[in-house]
């Protein structure tokens, strides 16, 4: 399928195009479920003023919405999204969790899979959704901007809701937990790369609304309201789109049945609290079985306790409200997200009774997250893939912080010094993102050309072993200072096609005790085990779940703990692996995984789509067989 030519698009033409695409989309989704459809959207990225917390703020959004549009597809569909960048920033869109099999050209990572979409230009993403169903999401993959450029990506089963491995829900509702920022997000992200940490979100949100915990004008602000009918079951598609925090979600007087995570079904289990980390999605059934009334839906962030650095973190809440009438249709539908403003205050509804308030976990409670994620096991269904028993390559990746000297100096004073700069590391190396003037790594890999960027192999183990989870390493001091020195490099690790790779991610206490939500593009990971403390292969391998591990695209290395995963490197191309905390990503907790071609055409990366804009201005640097192909694609 051909990509759209990269060019300027006037606003009037963009609006007309959006209307036309909306009509195409409505027609395509009206097709029978048995046949694959072509789903098409236009994303106009621009800036608009929104009011929250009694203040008008200029926000970068898609199609004027926060959250952005929900993309709904059926497994097997083809997706085309035209991104028109009318904002002042470079952007790309990443389809978080979509495997993009043999199609990393559409993965949407600047300078890794593509050039960024510059202001007043456009780019078309095209991909098929094969072998996946459940809740994923899309977001900008440029520093900071995913806080407002994001939305749900819902994949329905080919045979409809009747094929869910749980009772058919009455309705399906995206619940997106996020942040409200009054700061310049691009400036905030740039500052973090310079070890400047002075900008924080002003509030937390549920589906874009701050809720009535915030009362800047004397009138509580409107929050998200979910109307439910007694006895009905609702499928909540929960997404953490926040930049900095894992969240706990509770609904007073109700329990959840967790049925999926990261678009993979899990063995159902019941809980009154859901833990969802940045990048992660959780699907949970909510049975409206409480006495009719109003019940708060609370979301509270967690953070590591002292001696970790404490940052502003905000709870928020929406409302579950029982409807009096019984007029709603019994068909399964997806509820649209509220796009209203905060003005008007309070929650609608005629009930005079005060809403029931849930008892939330403490902000420093991190063990609840550990227990929640430990409860996830894969659902064994027909076609369930067995765990690969033979491992071809093992990596032990230590996640932490370190420092580099400012101004390129080789030596400097460490330990809360003005001479050094804080960075995040994997095996004591901090990822250096390629400059915008370089060639994207995918393009260089495919054409076997240089990328104007010096790469370095991601080490398979740390340079030294120590007590990784020693809490005495968290504050500045002589004990951690010897572990601080590091350096920056564009980290790459190559894998032979078909290799089974096992990775243990070990969180550390060096200058922090945070958890680390690690996201791998282009692949799912089997979560074999997790633990608190230092990983010990002599005893912890025995804990591996080799029968029904959960399958995730974002895994949590717990606070001062570890997680062990396996994945099959069967998707050829160039894939980003990184922590989904924005501060860790901006500071360098990332690497690039390159999966080599297999022995056949079906196991090899195909050429870029026709008209795929390249960053190489001198095609003479490419091999001759690729020069002809590129010349044809540009005509």
Question: Would you kindly provide a brief summary of this structure?
Answer:
This protein is mainly β. The protein has 8 helices and 33 strands.
Detailed description of the structure:
The protein is mainly beta. Helix content is 11%, strand content 34%. It is built from 8 helices and 33 strands. Strand 14 and strand 15 form a beta hairpin. The N terminus and C terminus are likely disordered.
Which structural class matches the secondary elements? mainly beta
Average pLDDT, rounded to a whole number, is: 87
What does the largest sheet look like? 7 strands, mixed
* First-residue to last-residue Cα separation: 16 Å
Strand content: 25-35%
Task: Return residue spans where pLDDT drops below 50 for at least 5 consecutive residues.
Answer: 1-34, 326-331, 338-350, 616-635
Report the count of strand segments: 33
SSE blueprint:
Blueprint: H1 11-29, E1 38-52, E2 55-62, E3 71-74, E4 78-85, E5 93-96, E6 121-128, E7 134-140, E8 150-156, E9 171-180, H2 185-193, E10 203-206, E11 225-228, E12 233-240, E13 246-251, E14 256-261, E15 264-271, E16 274-276, E17 281-287, E18 294-302, E19 316-322, E20 333-334, H3 367-374, E21 393-405, E22 420-426, E23 429-431, H4 441-447, E24 455-457, H5 478-481, E25 487-495, E26 500-507, E27 516-520, E28 525-532, H6 537-540, E29 551-552, E30 554-557, E31 561-568, E32 573-579, H7 582-587, E33 590-595, H8 624-633
Parallel strand pairs: 1-4, 3-8, 9-12, 9-20, 11-19, 21-26, 23-25, 24-25, 25-33
Antiparallel strand pairs: 1-2, 4-6, 5-7, 7-8, 9-10, 12-17, 13-16, 13-18, 14-15, 14-17, 18-19, 21-22, 26-31, 27-30, 27-32, 28-29, 28-31, 32-33
């Amino acid at each position: 399928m051909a990509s759209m030519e990269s060019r300027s698009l006037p606003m009037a033409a963009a609006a007309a195009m959006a209307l036309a695409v909306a009509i195409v989309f409505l027609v395509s989704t009206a097709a029978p479920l048995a046949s694959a459809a072509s789903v098409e959207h236009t994303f106009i990225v621009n800036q608009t003023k929104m009011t929250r917390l009694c203040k008008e703020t200029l926000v970068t959004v898609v199609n004027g919405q926060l959250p952005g549009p929900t993309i709904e597809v059926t497994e097997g569909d083809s997706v085309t999204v035209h991104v028109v960048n009318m904002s002042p920033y470079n952007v790309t869109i990443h389809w978080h969790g979509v495997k993009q099999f043999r199609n990393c050209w559409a993965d949407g990572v600047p300078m890794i899979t593509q050039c960024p979409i510059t202001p007043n230009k456009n780019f078309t993403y095209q991909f098929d959704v094969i072998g996946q169903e459940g809740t994923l999401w899309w977001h900008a993959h440029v520093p900071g901007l995913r806080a407002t450029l994001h939305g749900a990506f819902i994949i329905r089963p080919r045979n409809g809701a009747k094929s869910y491995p749980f009772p058919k829900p009455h309705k399906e509702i995206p619940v997106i937990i996020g942040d409200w920022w009054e700061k310049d997000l691009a400036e905030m992200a740039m500052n973090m790369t310079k070890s400047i940490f002075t900008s924080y979100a002003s509030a937390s949100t549920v589906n874009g609304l701050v809720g009535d915990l915030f009362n800047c004008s004397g009138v509580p602000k409107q929050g998200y309201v979910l109307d439910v009918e007694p006895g009905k079951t609702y499928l909540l598609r929960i997404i953490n789109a926040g930049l900095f925090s894992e969240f706990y979600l509770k609904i007073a007087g109700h329990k959840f049945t967790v049925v999926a995570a990261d678009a993979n079904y899990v063995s159902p289990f019941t809980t009154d609290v859901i833990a969802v980390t940045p990048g992660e999605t959780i699907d949970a059934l909510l049975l409206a079985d409480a006495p009719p009334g109003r019940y708060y839906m609370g979301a509270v962030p967690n953070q590591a306790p002292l001696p970790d650095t404490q940052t502003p973190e905000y709870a928020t809440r929406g409302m579950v409200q029982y409807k009096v009438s019984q007029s709603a249709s019994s068909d399964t539908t997806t509820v649209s997200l509220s796009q209203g403003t905060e003005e008007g205050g309070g929650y609608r509804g005629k009930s005079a009774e005060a809403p029931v308030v849930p008892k939330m976990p403490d902000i420093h409670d991190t063990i609840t997250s550990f227990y929640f994620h430990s409860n996830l096991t894969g659902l064994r269904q027909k076609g369930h893939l067995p765990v690969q028993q033979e491992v071809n390559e093992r990596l032990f990746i230590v996640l932490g912080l370190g420092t580099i000297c400012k101004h390129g100096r080789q030596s400097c004073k460490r330990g809360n010094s003005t001479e050094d700069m804080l960075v995040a590391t994997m095996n004591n190396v901090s990822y250096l993102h390629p400059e915008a003037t370089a060639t994207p790594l995918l393009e260089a890999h495919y054409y076997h050309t240089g990328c104007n960027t010096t790469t370095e192999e991601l080490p398979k183990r740390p340079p030294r072993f120590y007590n990784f989870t020693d809490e005495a390493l968290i504050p500045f001091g002589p004990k951690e200072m010897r572990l601080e020195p590091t350096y920056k490099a564009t980290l790459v690790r190559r894998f032979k096609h078909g290799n089974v790779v096992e990775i243990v991610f070990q969180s550390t206490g060096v200058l922090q005790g945070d958890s680390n939500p690690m996201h791998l593009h282009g692949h799912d990971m089997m979560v074999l085990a997790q633990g608190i403390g230092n990983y010990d292969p002599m005893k912890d391998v025995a804990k591996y779940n080799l029968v029904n591990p959960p399958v995730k695209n974002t895994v949590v290395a717990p606070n001062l703990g570890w997680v062990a995963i396996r994945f099959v490197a069967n998707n050829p191309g160039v894939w980003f692996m990184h922590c989904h905390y924005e501060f860790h990503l901006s500071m360098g907790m990332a690497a690039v995984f390159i999966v080599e071609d297999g022995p056949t055409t079906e196991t090899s990366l195909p050429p870029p789509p026709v008209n795929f804009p390249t960053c190489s201005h001198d095609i003479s640097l490419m091999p001759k067989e690729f020069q002809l192909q590129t010349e044809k694609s540009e005509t």
